[in-house]
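Re: duplicated header lines in exported structure tokens

Our pipeline writes sequence and tokens for each protein into one text file. With two proteins the header for the second block appears twice in some exports. Here is an export where it did not happen, for reference. First protein block:
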Amino acid sequence: MQFQRVEPPALLDGFASATAFFSSCFEGVGSARERLVVAHVDHEARCIGLTELDGDADQVDVPLRQILGEAIELGSAALVLAHNHPSGDTTPSQADCAVTRRLAVAGEAMDLSILDHLIFGRNGDCRSMRQMGLL
């Protein structure tokens, strides 16, 4: 896992800005493995921290405790998640939906919002779980 501050803070205030921001995170990953990127944002949707987690061809483990711990450490108001599907299909899997719901429920107890969970396929294709009504 990699954890870093983002300087200067990127503004993740909507689907277009989040898609543009995260697309660069998946350049060079290739189609062999999944990568999850978690952006920690403040009350004004400015990115104050970034965590990258690499997985395998089918999945990436989502360490909820660690992500929530980092949110506490950074004083995050919200999170924006993004990951890629090596298959190119941007449809969220059952596991994607389940872990996002678990994180949203845990975050709610901490006054931490999940603004969106984006799924990237090939050629810049991207789907928003928020726009799909799954958040």
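Second protein block, exported in the same file:
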Amino acid sequence: MPLPVTVEVNQSRDQYGKQAIQLLLTNVSGRPMTVAAAQLASPLFRGRILWEPTGGGLELPPGQPKSLPARLPAPVCGPEQSAARQSATGQSTAQQPVASVRYSQAGQAGVREVAPVAVDPFGVLERNNMELCLAAEAAAVADIVLDRRLDVAPDSRTAVVRLVITPKETGGAGPGEGSMIIASIAGTTLIAEPAESPWPRNIRIVRGAPHTELRLRIRPARCDPHAVAEDKVGTLLPLNVSVGRREGQLKIAAGPALRGQVYDFVTSACAQR
């Protein structure tokens, strides 16, 4: 007998860097239902991926998909990760992420629960697992943040953001035993490096080393009317890093104060063109 609801994994652009995804539920029963709870189990994460209703349940009409936001728990990393990835991407349905949906329908007594196999057509779970494990290994070497200050040039055409790197203490290990390399820094949909002021490359960070501050001169990457109004990821600065045996992109988010200043700068700089 077919299950009354299907579940798909997705992620909106404004959830990037927030350790959150979406569970896309579709009612295929042909009758209205009310969803009381939904969760997902994946071998790539240590806990359940939960959607928590803010009050009451969610009305799910027949054939109308609805996206439920869900926080990601801690990822499975280290020696367990290879086995978890192999399990998560295997062909057997027993190895795929399994959802649990509690629901009720008019004319049926009580609350029922079904466990459909979830589909992840865009590899959202694996991508987030890899990004979170990379971030955890990088955090063991150094704290990397964007300073809240933005220094705008007198002509308002460029500005400087500061990437602040604070290596962790060695903890008894010798200097150099925990290290990371920032191979390059990428631009975003909002900001880019000026041709005359390229951003640094191949920066080696070592546990126990002194605090470092990288001054990155920026310019607007685009000036179309919707650049700021529709921004989702323009203030997530991507660092292409290698740490341990991992390589990937580490995204450093601007805090609220810096984000607002970047928006103001891009708007002003674009007005000068």
